[in-house]
């Protein structure tokens, strides 16, 4: 064969190439006919349904396990002492603890696709912490009374899956999990809302003849369907569903006629949840494809054989000319150890050599794909021990640089996730190539617009006063700024001689980044030990008092001048910390809101469009931006005060006078609100802002105070006193008395008599 003319070989090869497809197509035809037979289609569809069911179960299990792990982290213990929303908002540290819980809930949402929202409710509290509305009172959030009912039939310590429709119209499958009494003393419930549409994504079949899918509970309630109009209806009313439920088979398939169309029903029941998964296919469409495929194969086979016979000679002649030219060109560069052989043999030898080189390159690519250096760097920055650390960073010294995108929220709003991911890839890969020889750099993305660069170097770079490192960081900053269209701030830590110290160095770099609050963004700063760490916090008490006075007087111009005084004082203070600046402005916001509440004004109405003010302040990068935000903050207040009706403050006094006069009677609060001339919900807010308690609690507290006097000063029985103060039965009286006094009425009377005797 090595000396047979190439043209003859090509003719034989081409003929075989044409014949082989004809044989393959023939075999393919028989295989496809068998595959699309009714039994084969049904079994294949059932297998696909079973796989989709397992995928759905795995996704739900992963979400449940992540939720259980979160309850075991004891993060909710941070807010256990704060059952009152007002108490939580009074102190920045309290809010910070709640925000930590909120961040954990956001992280929980991001672990599984399709999570709509999640929230945590502390038992007995009047607020919830949610990912969709933040930290808010229960009366401003979705109703949560349904949780107690769904948890009644719960077994063990696992959570409960509940299908429901939110007030926003979103249909979700909620996972409700009370905190485990074995792992924490905190009492509360986590609720994670998974979109019903995400369940549909798992259940939807990829078959072209797919008619639809159906997910039912054991009692037949539809919790997921391609037709959203039938959600939460009785699934047994759907065609042929009753027969499937009565079959008692865990999985199977059946054929039915519906409106002249032959349909395939496949079903599989979940052992874990007891749910029925059903898919419906059109058999007519599937079999039509089989028939069409048979005819196409016959014609295609005939065409291939005919074309092969005609083209074999033509192609053999036509292709031989460029092949000969190729062989002559290759031979002109050297024989590569092949002589006295025809062109095809020569090319075969050349291609084998190329194949060997390709295999070597493929091995190098495999080694590259198996590289785990990014994971190792992340672990080192978290303070964990990493086995190949000395291989990653062989030099004796290391420092950590953090590159942070200025105004990251603005950047994130202007770019989509794909673009941000691509930018991160370019910065990480490009950042490692900018450093000079002898300096090893490993760049990783830390999240929230921050990149960490671990820089490893020797004594030579130290002697050069970090000249190469500084130049590389300047180039990286310039590159990132041009790429992102945003300035970036670079913070560099002190030097360490141990890889175990990288976690502390990363913390130093982040502290340097925070200094852009005073210095502004876009620069490169190095860590330096502060000389006056014991210096007390700066706080402009006199400015605070003057701001409140100007606010009461409605003098915006003088108030803004006082804000300028505060900013100048901060800028002139030596080595003022980021935390000190945050403390100053958080305190200003806190005392201002307190002043508004004391003057019977509702801050929620004033700042309805601003969201969480404390979170907004914490997300600001520079002092100029923070000063601008505070100016707008006070402008909003004064604009509200200018247009506020004069009669509004009188509502609170009228409400309390009415309650003080009628608390022993049966009060219908809706009628009471109409009589005063306001809505019931607004009346509740006014009472809470003035007294710190709800309408019910205020009325019951007045009743119990009256009852305490009657217990000690009158000879009435407990039953008579209960009726006197407005309770229809003694059980309610005893329950509320114990709630507010910590003991039943009889014990209270006895203790008071003993103490007076």
From TrEMBL:
Organism: Paenibacillus rhizolycopersici
Domain HTH araC/xylS-type span(s) in chain numbering: 653-751
Main localization, broad class: membrane
Keyword set, alphabetical order: Cell membrane, DNA-binding, Membrane, Transcription, Transcription regulation, Transmembrane, Transmembrane helix
Membrane-protein topology: Multi-pass membrane protein
Coiled coil (residue ranges): none
Protein name in the entry: Helix-turn-helix domain-containing protein
Transmembrane segments: 297-319
């Amino acid at each position: 064969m090595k000396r047979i003319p190439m043209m003859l070989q090509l003719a034989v090869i081409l003929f075989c190439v044409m014949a082989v497809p004809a044989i393959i197509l023939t075999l393919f035809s028989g295989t496809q006919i068998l595959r699309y037979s009714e039994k084969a289609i049904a079994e294949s569809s059932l297998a696909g349904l079973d796989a989709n069911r397992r995928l759905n179960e795995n996704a739900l299990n992963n979400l449940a396990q992540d939720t259980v792990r979160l309850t075991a982290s004891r993060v909710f213990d941070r807010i256990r002492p704060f059952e009152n929303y007002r108490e939580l908002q009074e102190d920045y540290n309290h809010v910070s603890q709640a925000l930590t819980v909120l961040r954990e809930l956001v992280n929980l949402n991001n672990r599984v696709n399709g999570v709509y929202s999640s929230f945590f409710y502390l038992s007995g509290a009047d607020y919830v912490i949610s990912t969709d509305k933040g930290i808010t009172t229960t009366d401003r959030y979705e109703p949560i009374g349904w949780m107690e009912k769904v948890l009644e039939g719960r077994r063990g310590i696992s959570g409960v899956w509940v299908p429901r429709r939110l007030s926003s119209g979103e249909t979700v499958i909620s996972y409700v999990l009370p905190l485990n009494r074995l792992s924490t003393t905190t009492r509360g419930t986590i609720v994670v809302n998974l979109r019903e549409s995400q369940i549909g994504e798992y259940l939807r079949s990829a078959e072209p003849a797919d008619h639809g899918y159906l997910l039912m509970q054991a009692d037949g309630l539809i919790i997921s369907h391609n037709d959203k109009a039938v959600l939460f209806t009785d699934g047994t009313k759907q065609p042929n569903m009753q027969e499937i439920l009565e079959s008692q088979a865990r999985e199977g398939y059946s054929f039915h006629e519906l409106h002249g169309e032959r349909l395939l029903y496949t079903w599989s029941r979940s052992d874990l949840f007891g749910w029925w998964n059903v898919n419906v296919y059109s058999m007519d469409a599937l079999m039509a494809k089989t028939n069409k495929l048979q005819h196409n194969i016959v014609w295609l086979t005939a065409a291939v054989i005919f074309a092969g016979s005609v083209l074999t000679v033509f192609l053999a002649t036509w292709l031989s000319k460029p092949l000969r030219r190729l062989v002559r060109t290759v031979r002109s560069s050297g024989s590569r150890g092949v002589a006295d052989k025809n062109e095809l043999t020569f090319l075969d030898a050349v291609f084998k050599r190329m194949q060997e080189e390709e295999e070597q390159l493929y091995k190098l690519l495999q080694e590259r794909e198996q590289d785990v250096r990014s994971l190792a760097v992340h672990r080192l920055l978290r303070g964990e021990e990493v086995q190949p650390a000395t291989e990653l960073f062989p030099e004796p010294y290391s420092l950590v640089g953090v590159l942070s995108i200025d105004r990251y929220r603005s950047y994130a709003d202007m770019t989509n996730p794909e673009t941000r991911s691509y930018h991160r890839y370019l910065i990480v890969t490009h950042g490692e190539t900018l450093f000079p020889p002898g300096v090893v750099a490993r760049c990783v993305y830390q999240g929230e617009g921050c990149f960490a660069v671990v820089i490893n170097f020797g004594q030579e770079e130290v002697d050069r006063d970090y000249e190469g490192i500084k130049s590389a960081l300047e180039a990286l900053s310039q590159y990132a700024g041009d790429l992102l269209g945003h300035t970036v701030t670079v913070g560099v830590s002190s030097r360490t001689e141990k890889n175990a110290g990288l976690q502390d160095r990363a913390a130093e770099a982040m502290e340097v980044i925070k200094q852009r609050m005073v210095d502004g963004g876009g620069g490169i700063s190095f860590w330096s030990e502060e000389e006056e760490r014991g210096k007390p916090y700066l706080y402009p008490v006199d400015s605070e008092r003057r701001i409140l006075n100007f606010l009461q007087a409605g003098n915006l111009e003088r108030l803004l001048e006082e804000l300028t005084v505060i900013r100048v004082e901060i800028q002139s203070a030596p080595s003022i910390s980021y935390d000190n600046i945050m403390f100053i402005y958080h305190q200003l916001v806190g005392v201002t809101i307190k002043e508004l509440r004391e003057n019977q004004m509702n801050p929620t109405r004033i700042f309805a469009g601003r969201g969480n003010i404390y979170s907004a302040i914490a997300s600001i990068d520079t002092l100029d931006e923070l000063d601008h935000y505070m100016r707008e903050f006070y402008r909003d207040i004064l604009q509200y005060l200018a247009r506020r009706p004069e009669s509004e403050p009188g509502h609170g006094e009228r409400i309390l006078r009415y309650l003080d006069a009628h608390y022993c009677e049966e009060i219908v609060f809706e009628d009471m609100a109409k009589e005063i001339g306001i809505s019931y919900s607004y009346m509740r807010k006014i009472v809470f802002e003035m007294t710190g308690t709800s309408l019910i609690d205020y009325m019951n507290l007045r009743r119990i105070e009256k009852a305490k006097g009657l217990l000690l000063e009158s000879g009435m029985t407990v039953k008579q006193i209960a009726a006197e103060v407005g309770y229809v039965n003694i059980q309610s009286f005893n329950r509320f008395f114990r709630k507010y006094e910590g003991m039943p009425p009889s014990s209270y009377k006895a203790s008071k008599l003993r103490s007076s005797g």
